[in-house]
Amino acid sequence: MNNELFLKRFKLFRTLAVGEMKGDLQRWCGPYGNICTVSSCGETERLEPDSHPHLVLLFIDNDLKRAEECMERLKKLHFWQALLFGTDPKDPAVMEFAVKHRLFGVYALPDTSDELAKILVTVLPSLIERLQESSRTAQLHKIAEMGPAKLLYGSSGQIVYMSARARELFGIDKTKDAARELSELFSPLIESESKRQLKTVEYREHPLMVCKEVDSSSKETLFTILELDSSQNEAPSHVTRIEFIDRLKDKMAQHIDMSVPLSLLMIRMKNYTQIVEGFDWMTAHTVQKELNELLLKVFDNFESYGLWQPDMALVLFEDISGEELQKRISFFITQMNVKEFSEGVVPALDFTLIEIGNGDLNSMINLIEKEYAGSISVADTKEFGIYKVSSSDEKGEDTDVLRQFLTNIMAGQLPLKLLNIYKGLPISTPTKILKMEEDKVIVTAEKIQKFVMESEKEVVLQSAHLPSDVHADVHFIDGSRPLAILKNLKSMKTSVNNRKHTRVTVTSRLPVTLKFGKSHYTGYIHDISINSIAVLFNPDKFEENELKGRSAELSFKLPWENEEGFVNITVDGDVLFNRNEKEFHKVIVLLEPDDICESYIFDYIYKRQKELIKELKSRL
To answer: Within this chain, do residues 19 and 135 fall inside the same structural domain, yes or no?
Structure first.
C-alpha cells in the first residue's frame, strides 16, 4: 500500500500515542497530523468524550507495573485496538501482558516514522472492519429509532432496549421504568411458550398490534408494536378466535330455517411463512392489512370476521347463497391479482367455502382444524358442503405469467430458495436466478442442494414474490461450479409447507398389516410421520380410492434399543386416499396414536433424521 493511500485511509481513525517520552512520540506521530494525539498516561483522563481514540499506541520501557496502571485508565476510553511498543517485546512477561489485555500486537520501539507506518498497515484492516461494523450498527439503530415501536426483553425478563417510538407511545422516558409500567400488558405474551405470536391488545383505550419474536439462541424476546386504526378496531366484525367461536355458536343455534344459507369462508395465506422469513413480521402484517381492506370491499355484508391463525382468517355469512359467494371469491381473486402489495409481495391464498347445513359446532371446529392441518377426510365433510379454490389456480396454467414473476425476481435480486425433501428431510438453501432461457432457468445452487437435486431429479422454488411454490425438473448439475439448470417449471396447486409434521422414509422393508373389520392386508411402510403413514402394496391391489374414508387398525414394528430390537405398534387410523403410483399401490392413512405409540414414532423419526444428516455429510 503506497503512503498516500495509507494516509488517506488511516486519517479515518483517531490515534492516541501514550508514553513518557514525548519528544520521540511527537517525532514518530508527526506525519499523521491532528489525528494522532500524544499524551502521558496520567493525561488520558482529561480527554474529551468525542476525542476518544480508535487506536492506542502504548509505549513502555518494560515497566509493566506502570503499564498495568495505564491500561486501567485506557480501558475507560473504549478504544478498538491497541499496539504495545517496548525495548524487549520478546520478554515473556511483556507477551503475557499483551495476551491478558487482548492487544493487537507487540513490537520493538520504532526508529523512524516509516517503521511505525509499516506496523500500522497491519492493524488498518481490523480498524476498517470495526468502522464498517460501527456504521452498520449506527444505521440499524437509526432505522430502529425511526421505525415502529420496539421493546427487547432479556432472557431474565427485564427490558434491555426501548426504541424512541416506544418511549413516546407509552409515555415512558427511561427504559428502567418500562418494566413496571408495561408488565400487565406484556406478561401474558412473555409467559406464552409460543416463539412467534401476533396479538391485538389495548393500551389506554388505544388498540395495538403486538408482534412477538423469541431468539432461540439468546432467549431474548423482541416486541414490535403497531398502532391500529381505532375506527377499524371498533368495527364489530373484527373479532378474536374465541369471540368468533361464540358468534359461530350463536348463529348455528339460531339456524333453524335451512332455506336460509349459513356459510363459513376460510382464507389462508399459504406463503405467509416465506413472507415472514424473506422480509419480516411487519411486511407480513402490512400485506394482511392490505388484503383485509380488499376483503371488506368485496365481501361487504358478512356476519363476523376473525383471525383463526396468523395466516388464516374466517368469515361467516348468512343468507347469501354458496353460488353467490363463489362468484365473489372469483372476483376477489381477480382484484387481488392486479393489486400491487407492499414490497412487491405476491400473496398466495387458499379459499375453502363451507356450507354449514345441519352440522354441529364441535364438528365444525374439528373440520376447521383438520382443514388447516391438511388432514381432512371424507368422514369429516359428511355434514357439510365444501368448495375449494386457490388464487394461483389460474396463474398456475399461464407459463408466461410464471416467467414474468421469475424475471422480476431475477431483475430485483429478490429472495428465492430451493427446496428438496430428501427421504423426508427438508433441504432448503438460498439461490439466485442467473439467466432465463426460453424453456430453462439457470440458478445458483449450494453443494448440499446440488447433491440432493441430482438424486431427486426435481426441486421446488419458494419465494414470497411467487404466487405459489414452483416445481421444476433438474436438467443439469454443474459438478465444478455452484450452478444448476432447471426445466419444466410449473406452479404447484398446494404448498410444500402444508406438511405440518416431519415425514421420513424408512431404512428397510418394514411390514405393516391393515385391518378393515375382518379383512387383513399386508404391505410395507414407505414413510411415516406422527400423524400419517404411507403403505405400499402390489400394483392394482385395490381400485383407486376404494378404501378412502374407511377406518383401519394398523400393526407394525419399529426398530428399538431393547432385547428384541424392535417395538410393536398398534394404532387406529382413517384412509386419506389410495392409488397406483409407478410400480406400487400406495395407501395413505391418517394415524390417531395414543401417547405411548406417539412417543415411539417420534423417537424413530428423530433417530432417522440424524441418520439422514449423517448420510448427507458422508456423501459431500
So the answer is: yes
